[in-house]
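Hi everyone, sorry if this is the wrong subforum. Our group has a chain we'd like a structural model of before ordering constructs, and none of us has done structure prediction before. Sequence below.
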Amino acid sequence: MKTPSHNANRVPIGRHYAGTLELDLDRLLAGRLLIQGTSGAGKSATLRRIIEEAFEFMTTVIVDPEAEFGNLAAHIGATTIKGTEITAEGLGAAALRAREHRIPLHIDLSDLDPEQRIIKAAAFFAGLMSTPSDLWSNTMLVCIDEGHLLAPHLAGRAQDAETRRLGVATLTDLCSRGRKRGLATIVATQRLAKLSASVTSELLNFLVGLNVFDRDVKRAADFLGFSTKDADKLRTLAPGEFYAMGPALEASAMLAKIDPTITKHTGATPQLIGSADHSAEEAESLLALDAMRTLTQPEKSRLTLKGTRALDAFLLDPAATLAITTVQALAKISPNATTCTDLSAHTGRAREDIHDALDTLSAIGAIETTHRDDTRIARLSARLRQKNANVDLVALA
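Answer:
Right subforum, don't worry. Here is the predicted structure as tokens:
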């Protein structure tokens, strides 16, 4: 790891009319950074560029809700931790140990449901903040993509309000009190209107790109000190163009073009490609439509009753015993799915028996499953996943 002098703690990230746009890492530590731009503006690529330039100056952590930074993690030698494989408490402990031993991390939260994503990210941030003071000199760059997913401005449902408060509180705390603890935080987001104002109020440096929504344009213009007329410039920026402003960047808002990245941006918009040239018969065969038609469960065998009559029908179903074992197995790995083959191996029962159990559970709405074939997968229904949120296992033994 580099140990440059204070004056050298600046990294090039782009170009403007006066020369090179540099990011002062010492001032970043004191003032944090917001990277904002609508989808396609180059927000994640900008974050990627900063990490590529800065990772040798500080231990780097990438918090990745959309699994877009795996190749960058490999490039900088970061250890990937999948949120589905570690408990919230485990992520908090991992944060503390990474700080102690100066280990770069890539936290992949992509396979978690929205509530668990916030809970586990909050536990990780809390772990960083709980570091003893004798380790604060182990400075760390904390890079958070899609910050609005971890600290949303509003809860999606009334039931999510407490989880949202947890996410907002921990990320705000990281930004407000992280400086003296040696934590330099970068938050990237597509939508300012969706990111909590409590978080953005703690960020003193800005890279603002293309915006199209009125509420986002207004908030971004306020950050940059733009007039209403100047705010319209934010609607016409090209991908990779950002207004840079703040103590770690430029004294006043300056338009810059962010430099290309070394690693490929895996979250880039795919190139357009047309459909394949298949005949109707080939398409039916590739979609296995015949199998779906012939393997549809007979109407007379479905459990269509409700209430106690449905419970009675379920208990009298020959597949009920195995169905209960199966749903218990799915509960152990929720919210993840598994295959019919894995369930067969786990229970020691034939796949045909597992198929019957899955059909029974599907009929009463207890699981989500695909059609009955060799690649069939299943997981708990959304209703049961919500009731079964705290699990430690992620795979069947």
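For your construct planning: The chain has a mean pLDDT of 86. The first helix runs from residue 25 to 31.
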